[in-house]
Amino acid sequence: MDNNDQHQGSTAEPKQPEENNPTTTRSWTIHDFDIGRQVYLAREKASKRILAIKTLEKEQLRVGGVVQQLRREVEIHSRIRHKNILPLYATFQDDSRGRHHHHRMLTSIYFMVLLVYLVLRYAPHGDLFSALRTAPCGRFVISFLLPVHLTPLS
Q: Which residues does the annotation place in the binding site?
């Protein structure tokens, strides 16, 4: 993907191939995607489908004591079907045998940052938190938020 394929600031959804839903039974690794300049925008190589990939550092999850919380959220998120919640297609993580690792330099010492990846439907207009953060005084028009709030989860 080129540098123009960015998640933020884009108002048009990237062109998608035929409506091939990513399979949730497939075992993905980071090598199955072309990653854009922004970490969050990806194109699955096999289907050419544009997706979002959220990355979380394992060490930060462990230090923050939120590993179990993340597991619960992933379990709940994978079962929810709601028009206002992006579907979670898959999760995967780096393994310790070198499949995919990010290296960072800290005072000339290299260490590995192992990541957890969440594969979600791409949202061309961003997320609600970002929209609230940029809205004047963090407010939205009630006609926009009320239907989101009142729609029951399935």
A: 54
